[in-house]
Each structure stands twice: as C-alpha cells, then as structure tokens.
Write a structure and sequence with these properties.
The structure holds two protein chains of two kinds.
Chain A: H1 2-22, E1 30-36, H2 52-61, E2 66-68, E3 74-76, E4 79-84, E5 90-95, H3 109-120, H4 129-133, E6 136-142, E7 146-151, H5 158-162, H6 170-175, H7 181-184, E8 191-197, E9 201-206, E10 227-233, H8 236-241, E11 250-252, E12 268-273, E13 280-284, H9 294-302, H10 306-314, E14 319-320, H11 335-339, H12 344-353, E15 356-358, E16 364-366, E17 379-384, H13 388-398, E18 404-409, H14 412-420, E19 426-429, H15 437-443, H16 461-470, H17 476-492, E20 496-501, E21 504-509, E22 512-513, E23 516-517, E24 524-525, E25 530-531
Helix pairs in contact in A: 9-12, 10-13, 15-16, 16-17
Chain B: H1 2-29, H2 34-40, H3 49-58, H4 65-77, H5 91-126, H6 131-145, H7 148-162, H8 174-204, H9 207-214, H10 219-256, H11 262-271, H12 275-303
Helix pairs in contact in B: 1-12, 2-3, 5-6, 5-8, 5-10, 5-12, 6-8, 7-8, 7-10, 8-10, 9-10, 10-11, 10-12, 11-12
The chains are: A alpha+beta, B mainly alpha.
C-alpha cells in the first residue's frame, strides 16, 4: 500500500513538473490581446451584429470609408473625399483607386454599393447597421471611384455609420455560405481573418499586400505585427492579472480594481479613454408612486453623491456623468452639474413636503401621499444588470435620508421583460455613442411602446419636439444646442439619476509600441503598432 | 443482451421527448424576447417596433408555439436541430465544435477523480479507524465540499498568477487542461473516495473475503482481486452519475478558465435566449448522459459474472 501511495505521489509531481516545463511563450511580433468574454461578437459580421466589438474587430480586417481619428475628427479611409448636400439628403464620396480586397478583387464604387445593399436587405437581418445606414433611396456610381448615396429625408449621421460599416469583398459575399466567417470576412484591411474558436480566441495574420494608404497609417505598406490574437476571458480576476503573467501583451478593458497592479510600473502602460454616451444612468419610472412625484425624484438625486461612489469603488478612475449625456459627450449640458449638488437637507425637505415623513427607525413612511396607504415605507427598487456596487453605495447614502433603496441584479432577458411590462422603479440603462440622437431614443415618448426604449412614462410635447428635430438638423452645433435644451428639460423634471461613466482602460506591456486608442474608448488602431523586444 | 440494449435504447425515445418538451416550455416561460435581446446590444440607434417585428419574423418567432415545437421535433428526428439565432449557423455544428473541449475536460476530470479518489478510499479502508483513515476522509470531505468556482480561482491564483506554471485561461493545449481538470476532478475525487471506502469495508466482511484470508492469500491479492472488484459495482454507478455531474460542472469551470465548451455555450445561449441552440444542446447532453449510464449498466456484467441482461 505504501508503495502504491509513493507511486501515485511521484507520478503526480512528475506530471506537474513536465507540464510546467512546457511554458507559455509569446512569439515575436504576435500581439495577444485579452478582451472580456462579454465583448465576444455573435456572428463577427458587422453587417449583422449590433456590437461595437464586432465593428472594432472588423476594422482590423477591412478599412472603412472614413475613420474617426483619435482626435475626434473624420479623416480619409477608403474614401479620399466626401461632401453632403445642403439639405442633408445626398452624400457624395470619392473613393481611393488601386485598392484591392484580400482575395484580389478590386475595391471600387460597385463594391461599396454591393455592401450597402447587403446591409439594408431584409434577408441580411441586420440588427443595427441597417438602421444606422438608414433608408437609402438610391445609390449611384460614377466610374470606379465616384459614389453617391441619396435619401428622401436628411440623413445627417451617415459618417458615424460608414466609419463602422465593414466593407467585404463582393465576390466573397456572393459565394460564402451564411455563417462561414472565413469566407465572408475578406476585406481590405491590414490583417486577414484566420480563425475564430468561439468562446476562446480570434486569430488574424498580417496581409502582406496591405497598401496602408488610409490617413491613420503613418507609412504605406503592410503593418509590422505578424499576427493578432484576441483571447476572450470570462473571469474578471483573470483579466486583471493576465497581463502580469505574460500570457498576453495587452488587456482591453482592464477592471479598474486591478489598475493598481500596473500603475507606476515601468513594465506596463495604462491608457484610459471615456465613452461618450448616457453614462451608467438610472432611469425613473414616473408612472406610479413614489417616483410619480417630482419631489421624490429630485430628493434621490440630491441625496446621492456619485463622486464619493467613484472614490470608494473605483479609486476615482470612473468619469463624471452628471446628466442624460455624460460629461465627455460633445453635446453635454453643463447645467446638469450644478442643478442638483449633493444636499441632504434639501432632499429631506422635499421628502417632507411630498408627504414622506420620518417614521420609526428613521425610515420614511407615507403620510397623506396620494394613492399610497399611510404608513407605507419609502422604498425604491433599483434593477440593474451590473455595476450593482454603485447602487450599494447609493443605498448607504440614502438610508440617512430615510429612503430604503432595494437593489436587484437581473440578467438581460429579465431586464428587458421588466421594462417591456414597465414593472420597475429605477432601471439601469446605458447607451454609448457620440451622437446626441441617443437622447431621442431614450426620452422621446414616441418610443414608449413595445420594443421602444423610452421607459420612463414621461411625455412632454416640448421635449419630444426638440428630440425629433435632432434627426433633421445637419449642423453639429445646432444639434448640440437642441440636445442641451432636451437635457435641461430632462434634468428639471428629474427623470433620471445620473451616476458615473465607465472608461475603457487598456493595459499594455512595454513591448507594445505605436498602439493608438480611438476617439472613443471602444475603438483602437493597430496600423502603426509593433512589438519591440 | 442485444434485446436488453435495444430495449434500453427504445426507452430513450420517451425520455428525450420529455426533455425536448420541458426545455422548449421552460425557454418560452422565461422572460425575454430573443429579437429584443439582439437589438438591445445595439447602442445609439433607433429600435422601432417595426424593426423588432421584422426581426421576430425572420427568427420564426411569430409562428404559433405548437408549430415552433413541431418544427423543432421533426427537425431533430432528421438530425437537424435548426440554426442558432445568435450565430446564424447550424446548431449541430456548434454543438459538435464545442463538445470536444467539454468532453475532454469531463474525461480528464473523471480520470483525475478516479486516480485520486480510488487510492484515497482504498487506503482509508485498509487503515480503518486509524489516523490515515481520518486524514484520507478529511481530505475527501474538503475535496467534495469546495465550491468549483472558488477552487478554480484558488488554483489560478497559485499555479498561474504566482508560480506561472499553467495558463490562467483558454483552451486548445494540454497545459491549459490541467487546472480545469483538477478543479473538476478534486470535487468528484472526494465523493468517490468516500464511496470506495464504505464499499470496501462492506465487502471486507463478506464470506468470500474471509475464505480468501483463510486460504492465506496475499493481502494485496485479496484487496484487488476479491475486494475491489466487488466493491466496484456501486462505485461504477457513481462514476456514471459523476460523469453527468462533471459535464454539468464544466459550465462553471469553463467560465472560470475561459475555455470554449458546451457549458459556456449553453449559458450564453440561455442569456441570449437562443432557443434552437439551448434546445439542441440540452437534448444532445441528455443523449450523452443516457448513453453513458447505459454503458455503465452494461459494464456491471463485466465485473460480476452473475449479472446477465436480457434473460
């Protein structure tokens, strides 16, 4: 028996030693990126998928017509020039000459037309891009490089769509079987698609014939990197450490709590970029008590301190989001920051005034609140998909006011079911886009219908009118002015509880050079990247 | 024997029918709309009721439930489990693509469970009542009571983050299999060790064991030829059941170690309400589980010549 035990022990030790000796080396010029598993695309075809990560990965395989540069301006991609008619209905693009797809097919106006037609075709079942490209009336081509897209109504956001819309080889699209990504993902970009092991990794390799002529490339010709491997990591603790173990060169979306691991260490570089949008907001259901009373809604905003939550939870690494658009959004209304300074006294007075009085144990109860039985405790239910920790800090901040914030974490399907039934009080919601049109989607009462995104039950013809104009006005400044007017109305009526905005933190080891983050945290460029050992 | 196997295979039909009905019904009872979920990934664009209805139509969700179920069952009978709503590829391709990794993990976990659990149980039984017995049983209790998620993270912390011996995430290589297999295997090893110990102690009092000892056979021969073989019958049942548990356990393990596998695929598809994929994958796992247990039942005859089927 003793001999058997020894044999078992030694065989185990020998196995471990053998396996350990295999090691996990990172080859030269191979960039290995860790990305959260939640970012893994569904189909990897940006014509169909509605995910930023899909469009980002697509941009490594194929160049877009225009590029949103790191400084936030549109620069030439495969279009060298573009213009729009004064009425915003006709877009004209001049395309680059001499560009080819990975399969040798020429890139030209017909290729762009084929891609746009595929995106908007109902049988493609595009979940998002078809809406972004919009209701095209017709597409006209002029030779190899002239392209005109015509709409019946002004379509002012086309550049934001075509910067993300991937352009695949029409020859590949014509012959590829649905779902066969190696056949579909034939682009013009710096990397060729090699393989996608779902729930594990995506592998791309350098395309040696890449011309490198878009405005983001610093030099013509193929990129330095031999390959890019994107590994999808399901566990945040692993995401936080995987750069330090040397298994990857780069972590895209480093959990903030792990940033201390790398800050101040010259072996690593941390980059952080915000994401313009709504921030992590809590929208309020105004249909029933207690949130049907503006005084209660205002008290909630006055009684919470998101800056303190940022310090407690994220070492201050998250960004302020004081209103319906976050503070880094180009159309942010600065009045949001001043309207509701943290003021527990004012919040308490508002609650007293609304009929919610302090009862036994310090918690407030109804006394003369319309439609509410006297003695009913003041509870507010907060439903969220994630970031429940923000709710927990708010819970602690609201308790001295006598408000019982109850937090429930729900999966995506349940959240959608709740909002469809309008069965919620405070609901987590986030949209990420530099376009102010997201306000229309969330706050225009026209979308308070099945499938619509306007959940709060608040209807105001003035607000709806302003939001509808956002779709028709072409001038950026004018649109931002409209968006600011809308934000003011939303804040005056206290329809949402602003919290924070989540930045994207990217961790790089010292070997990675030339990596560039986009204007938005959810985008980056590898055209000029290299691995220096 | 042939009749028995045929009979057992025929019994699979009503079981699988029930499984298909339950999984179909449960998925429809759960809150959430796959079309809406797909659009909810869209940020910054307009989600109109028209677009929602269009997508529902394309996904076949506007058909009556009975028609959807009938399509599923008729397709499954012909080996066609439909196409994934999310991935837009045949479900069977996705399942077969991922099952290899899950099967590999479950088998490796089972191998480790047996390799660790059996000696532990045998040693404990041979040293019944002594400190070695107590130590072995304590280890088995610890093994069987540790949460998979916690154990997985602990192993990653020690062997990946600290010692850098194994990769912390991913699949596709032998070294990437070790920590997940240990995570799964240690749990089952504890269960098996306890069962083997009690089973060995039970057979130790049997007449044939006393006879063997009276004949003056070597203790090792008594334990392996007479004791272990007879003690293995309930253990074999447990191994069959444990294999099912290991397949289920891969869901958590695959998530902790970011391994591509059927478990993660099912969890993701439940969250995205990918009806065809969930239905197909559960049905597939049910078939695997039933076949494994059939194989275990047949293995009894190999261990005990007195057991005969079909007569």
């Amino acid at each position: 028996m003793t001999r058997m035990k020894k044999a078992a022990l030694w065989s185990g030790v020998a196995s471990l030693a053998l396996i350990a000796s295999v090691g996990t080396a990172v080859a030269e010029s191979d960039l290995i990126i860790a990305m959260p598993a939640t970012n893994e695309p569904a189909s990897l075809d940006g014509h169909i998928d509605p995910y930023q990560s899909t469009w980002l990965i697509n941009s490594l395989i194929t160049d877009p017509l225009v590029i949103l540069s790191p400084d936030g301006t549109y620069i030439p991609g495969l279009a060298t020039d573009w213009s729009v008619s004064d009425d915003g209905k006709t877009w004209t693009f001049t395309l680059r000459d001499g560009v080819t797809f990975h399969d040798g097919e020429p890139f030209n106006a017909e290729a762009v037309r084929a891609n746009l037609e595929r995106i908007v075709a109902p049988e493609t079942a595009s979940a998002q891009m078809a809406s972004d490209i919009g209701p095209i009336a017709s597409i006209e081509t002029d030779g190899e490089t002239g392209l005109t897209i015509i709409y019946d109504t002004p379509w002012v956001t086309l550049l934001d769509a075509v910067r993300r819309a991937p352009l695949w080889s029409p020859a590949a699209l014509a012959t590829a079987e649905p779902g066969d990504m190696s056949a579909i993902l034939v682009g013009t970009g710096p990397f060729r698609f090699v393989d996608w092991v779902q729930n594990d990794n995506i592998t791309l390799e350098r395309w040696d014939d890449y011309a490198g002529v878009t405005a983001i490339s610093e030099a013509p010709g193929p990129v330095d990197l031999d390959s890019v491997t994107i590994r999808f990591i399901g566990e945040s603790a692993v995401m936080g450490e995987v750069l330090a173990t040397g298994e990857v060169n780069m972590v895209y979306t480093l959990p903030p709590l792990f940033s201390d691991r790398y800050v101040g260490n010259s072996d690593y570089t941390l980059l952080s970029k915000g994401q313009a949008g709504t921030g992590l907001q809590m929208v309020m259901n105004t249909r029933s008590a207690p949130l049907d009373d503006i005084r209660v809604r205002q008290a909630l905003i006055l009684g919470t301190d998101s800056a303190a939550a940022n310090d407690i939870l994220y070492d201050g690494l998250y960004q302020a989001s004081d209103g319906p658009l976050n503070n880094i959004h180009p159309c942010f209304w600065e009045g949001s920051s001043d309207m509701y300074p943290v003021d527990q006294e004012r919040a308490a007075a508002l609650l007293d005034d609304a009929g919610w009085v302090v009862g036994d144990g310090g918690m407030r109860v109804a006394q003369g609140v319309e439609g509410v039985e006297d003695g009913t405790p003041l509870t507010v239910r907060y439903s969220t998909l994630h970031h429940q920790e923000i709710g927990e800090v708010f819970q602690a901040q609201l308790r001295p006011l006598g408000i019982d914030l109850q937090i429930e974490v729900v999966p995506g399907p349940v959240q959608l079911d709740m909002v469809q039934r309008r069965d919620f009080e405070l609901m987590y919601e986030r949209q990420r886009s530099p376009s102010p049109l997201i306000l229309d989607q969330v706050w225009n009462s026209a979308y308070d219908e099945p499938g619509g995104w306007a959940w709060t039950g608040y209807a105001n013809p003035e607000l709806d009118g302003i939001l509808e104009q956002l779709r028709a006005v072409f001038d950026d400044d004018e649109r931002c002015d409209l968006a600011r007017d809308a934000q003011q109305i939303i804040m005056e009526n206290a329809l949402m509880l602003p919290t924070l905005s989540q930045p994207i933190i990217v961790g790089l080891d010292a070997s990675v050079q030339g990596f560039e983050m986009g204007a938005e945290g959810n985008w980056f460029f590898l055209q000029n990247a290299s691995i220096e050992n | 024997m042939r009749r028995y196997v045929l009979g057992r295979l025929l019994q699979l039909i009503p079981v699988l029918f029930l499984v298909s009905l339950i999984v179909f019904a449960v998925m429809r009872l759960l809150p959430g709309d796959p079309a809406l979920l797909m659009l909810s990934g869209a940020e910054g664009g307009a989600i109109t009721p028209e677009r929602l209805n269009e997508l529902r139509e394309q996904m076949g969700l506007n058909e009556p439930l009975a028609a959807q179920y009938l399509n599923f069952v008729l397709g499954a009978l012909q080996g066609d489990l439909g196409s994934s709503i999310r991935f837009q590829v045949p479900v069977i391709d996705l399942i077969l693509d991922r099952f290899g990794s899950t099967f590999e993990l479950a088998v490796a976990g089972l191998f480790l469970a047996i390799a660790i659990g059996m000696p532990l149980g045998m040693i404990a039984a041979a040293r019944q009542g002594g400190w070695i017995d107590s130590l072995c049983m304590t280890l088995s209790y610890i093994g069987s009571s540790m949460p998979v998620y916690w154990l997985g993270l602990l192993l990653v912390l020690v062997f990946s983050f600290t010692l850098h011996w194994f990769p912390s995430a991913g699949g596709g290589s032998f070294e990437a299999l070790i920590l997940p297999a240990f995570t799964l295997g240690l749990l089952s090893a504890g269960v098996l060790a306890r069962l083997i110990r009690s089973s060995m102690l039970e057979v130790a009092t049997e007449d044939y064991m006393r006879t063997a000892r009276a004949k003056g056979l070597f203790p090792r021969l008594i334990i392996f030829r007479h004791g272990l073989k007879n003690a293995m019958i309930p253990v074999l049942t447990m191994i069959g059941l444990q294999f099912g548990a290991l397949l289920a356990g891969t869901v958590v393990t695959e998530t902790v170690f970011s391994r591509p596998g059927l478990g993660r695929l099912i969890v993701d598809s439940i969250l995205s309400k990918d009806y065809p994929l969930v239905q197909g994958a559960i049905l597939f796992l049910a078939v695997v589980y039933l076949l494994v247990n059939l194989a275990v039942d047949l293995a009894y005859a190999l261990l005990d010549p007195r057991i005969r089927y079909g007569n």
